[in-house]
Amino acid sequence: MSADFHKIRRLPPYVFAHIDPLKAKARAEGVDVIDLGMGNPDMPTPQHIVEKLQETVKDGRTHRYSTSRGIPGLRKAQASYYGRRFGVKLNPDTQIVATLGSKEGFANMASAITAPGDVVLVPNPTYPIHSFGFIMSGGVVRSMPADPNEDFMRSLDRAVRHSIPKPIALVLNYPANPTAYTADLDFYTEVVKYCREHEIFILSDLAYSEIYFDIDPPPSVLQVPGAIDIAVEFTSMSKTYSMPGWRVGFAVGNERLIAALARVKSYLDYGAFTPIQVAATAALNGSDDVVDEVRKVYKARRDVMVESFARSGWDIPVPQATMFAWAPIPPQFAHLGSLEFAKLLIKETGVGVAPGVGFGEYGDQYIRLAFVENEQRIRQAARNIKKLLGSKTGTGNVVPLAG
Among 285, 314, 347, which residue terminates a domain? Predict the structure, then answer.
């Protein structure tokens, strides 16, 4: 009776379980922890969205059970968004399901379509639910390159030819968490053509569609002609509208896949609280000015992080999208790996980061940094880190954090 349950045995300990106690301990000792680890937006939800929630919640009729597919108005608003933003026409009744955030949608889609032993192609490194949603459902994950470069299609073809049984699905995530890689429509066109020929579903995570800088707006895979025959896309309101705690997302696309997801969800939940869905509808139908403002804040923070960390001695590639920087571990610390380096940063600098290994084995030489602190705090983090980097290059000494 002491053995772990089967599904639990398939899940490694969550990497942040190693980091969070160290942050808590540092805070208990009086350290001002600058937490750049979790991608948890710190900006308040725009006021008109909050006011719509307040207005709706006063109506007692909205306190009853909702619907797991999402209220009709919300699904229509998401269809309108896809029409405006991507030129993609969707049927709100058959091609859209509202989810409790994109994470829940991904996990329940995996549960809906995966049989024990099914092979799924997943980027590595990537957001953990992309892999573990299928692992929990009894599937087998085969790693794919995360970078949508010229080698991707060769890797895809090799994975399909050498997987037994043939893969049932390919996961895509652009703009990508954690790497911030982006993909263009030509890339999607090539992938859709291949997957249609080999009868492989595409599950696209587009949670960061509106968080982009210095580039054209990221496309949707559903813009490719014929993609609707094999593809479902997941989006979230968490980052776009600073609504992470509201838990509102969507799955849209292929009717067969959407129907499977809706059927699973019908047994598991009654959807988000109706006033939340009404407020989310107001957000989607409202002005894009609030989205533009969110984007400007993240861009300013990105620029400050890249510039100030470079002055500290840590060169960070400039991300073109998402609210993250994907930073190689400084060379003098590379031997530690990402988890031990993250622990060292907490202990010596009071800066919290996300170890790259938490997103897959091929992320272990990287750290993910989130733009979730204001510009002043980001500069302070850079100054703290400079002391550590200087101590390891013979140019300075670590100053112990005040306790």
Answer: 285
Q: Which of 263, 285, 307 is the last residue of a domain?
A: 285
3-state class of 150 per DSSP?
coil
The kind and range of the H/E element at 197 are: helix 185-197
In a shared domain, residues 116 and 31: no
Assigned domain for 339 exists: yes
pLDDT single digits (tens) 9-61 = 778 777 777 788 989 999 999 999 999 998 889 999 999 999 999 999 999 99
* Residues, the chain: 403
- Residue 244, helix vs strand vs coil: helix
Instruction: Return the residue matching tokens 């302070």.
Output: 380
Angle, CA 56 vertex, CA 51 and CA 61 arms, to 5°: 170
Domain total for the chain? 2
What is the 8-class DSSP label of residue 3? S
Task: Say yes or no: 39 and 84 in one domain.
Answer: no
Q: Could you report the per-residue pLDDT of 55-82, keeping only the tens digit for each?
A: 999 999 999 999 999 999 999 999 999 9
Q: The CATH number of the domain where 168 resides is what?
A: 3.40.640.10
Is the pTM of the predicted complex or chain greater than 0.85?
A: yes
3-state secondary structure of 323: coil
